[in-house]
Amino acid sequence: MRVSASILDCDFLKLGQELADVARAGADTIHLDVMDGHFVPNLSYGTPVAAAVRRAVGIPVHTHLMVREPEKMIAWFLPYSDMLVFHVEAAGHTDSCFKMIRDAGKLAGICLNPDTPVTMLEPYVGECDEVLVMSVFPGRGGQQFMPASLERIRSLRALLSGHGSRALVSVDGGVNTENCRDIAGAGADIVVAGSAIFRSRDYAATIRALRCG
């Protein structure tokens, strides 16, 4: 199991140190949650923070665009991201989003909310490198994992396998050291964790525990 550290719950007064610490602790990637206050009821950060993160770490940076009409923002974050993930519910032109990301030589991911049918992704399974399953409704950190997400992960894994897709499955929302084994068992390849890591006393121990799958 790979672990992606979402900085939404880190101490932004010590951003550089937090990034160095979590990378040293073994995180595989840094996860940036970009919120626009429209698609989700919250605002997070923009390109200055993304640029700072990119300068601070050598591990991959994955940017999750929780924004309406992501095709209007993809170009802003491409220089600072190894992968960009956008929501199938929010894109006005899904094919254009994939093309913009691919043309820049970056990995492309697509995300779906807890109430979006997994089958909605079927037209795009050949386009994506990763599918991000939201196990909470996006917009804020620290929420509880929705148990029904386990069956959605299984359904997604079956969908991808049925189409011969090698896309990875990642899970974001309420992930912790107690439920990570169930998440792995359902078929996930990557867990995204924010509060579980940054509110712990030992980042390295927590990341090791999150790899339990």
Relevant terms:
single chain; 213 residues; alpha/beta; TIM Barrel; eight-stranded parallel beta barrel; globular
Produce the secondary structure layout.
Layout: E1 2-6, H1 15-24, E2 29-35, H2 47-56, E3 61-66, H3 74-77, E4 83-87, H4 94-103, E5 107-112, E6 130-134, H5 149-162, E7 168-172, H6 180-186, E8 190-193, H7 195-198, H8 203-210
Parallel strand pairs: 1-2, 1-8, 2-3, 3-4, 4-5, 5-6, 6-7, 7-8
What does this structure look like?
- The chain is of the alpha/beta class and 213 residues long.
- The protein has one domain: Aldolase class I (TIM Barrel, Alpha-Beta Barrel), CATH 3.20.20.
- The protein contains eight helices and eight strands.
- Strands 1-2-3-4-5-6-7-8 form an eight-stranded parallel barrel, surrounded by five helices.
- It is globular.
- The mean pLDDT is 95.
